Input
Amino acid sequence: MQHDRVQLFYDILANDHISFLFQGSYNDDMTEGILELSEYNIDNFEGLTKQRKKISFLIVECFQNIVRHGVVDSTYVIPEGVFIIRNKGNVNYISSINYLSNDVVKPLKQTLDKLKSLSKDELKQFYLKTLVELPVSGKGGAG
Output
């Protein structure tokens, strides 16, 4: 990352309780270290201890998505994944970015549109059905 971008991110994140941003090459071995670092910070910030399991789960999911499903191509502006954790006030942000091959974009968009239309109960039922019925993909996960 260029120096001016690093400074911009620093300025934006300076008042957060917890902030972590990583851009680079990812592998499964990194997940454990990032999870430990995040849990240490969560344990030392009283307002987050009740959400520890949910936050840890989302961190692992984000990393697995980058490692297993991201496409690395030197022609992209950011060929590696990006992972961000923020806690600002009472709001927690966990974000990840990775590139996908064009052939999965349309089916993914259709699935996301379907998920957005479901109620909380319908979403839970869809999730449970997906876990039971869909085979694990070659990259890992239920797709």
In short: The chain is about 50% helix and 15% strand. The radius of gyration is 17 Å.
